[in-house]
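Open question from group meeting: does this chain pack into something compact, or does most of it stay loose? Before anyone orders reagents, we agreed to write out a predicted structure and look at it together. Recording both the input and the output here so the notebook holds the full record.
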Amino acid sequence: MAFKNMAARLSMIAGAAVLSAVSAFAQPIVGDAEVGVSQVKVSVIAVDADTRQVVLKGPEGNIFTVKAGPAIKKFDEIKVGDTVTITETDAVIVDIAKPEAGVGVGIQVSQAVATDPNSPKPAGAVVDTIRLTAEIVRLDPDDATVTLKGPEGRLYLVQAKKPEHKEKVKGLKVGDLVQVTFNQSVAIAVTK
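Structure tokens returned:
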């Protein structure tokens, strides 16, 4: 999952709402004990102050443009040659529960954006809180692993690590609807 949608993630930092592309493969949602952190550095190759667009070049030579929204307060300090460090944290389970009565398969996303006013260059983070309600299609209570079928048939692989989450998984069965709440984050900092 790390940086597949780098331009979309940068746009979220800039204040735009972007939905991730739907994948046919199971998307892993890890427990708290094995949180993965990925980091990539990209270069600023052009800045358009009038449109607030920044052209970036990735480590493999891929070029993409992002628009900085009003949340980026120090936009005028972004210069050609700057390095942008993007740090992405895998999804972390916050809760596993049976959904309320009448709730069907679906997904809700809320987003918090924060900037660092003390940073000499633009820096910020986006934390997505995702509440997925899905049907259990496979279950391994010994490994605390659950495969869920969510909206549009998308599969999610959930592995609980915290003892309280493992206990909740033991009380589930194939065919049950379950609600999993998880967080994932992206932090971006412009450096020289």
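Observations to bring back to the group:
DSSP finds two helices and ten strands in the chain.
Residues 6-191 form one domain.
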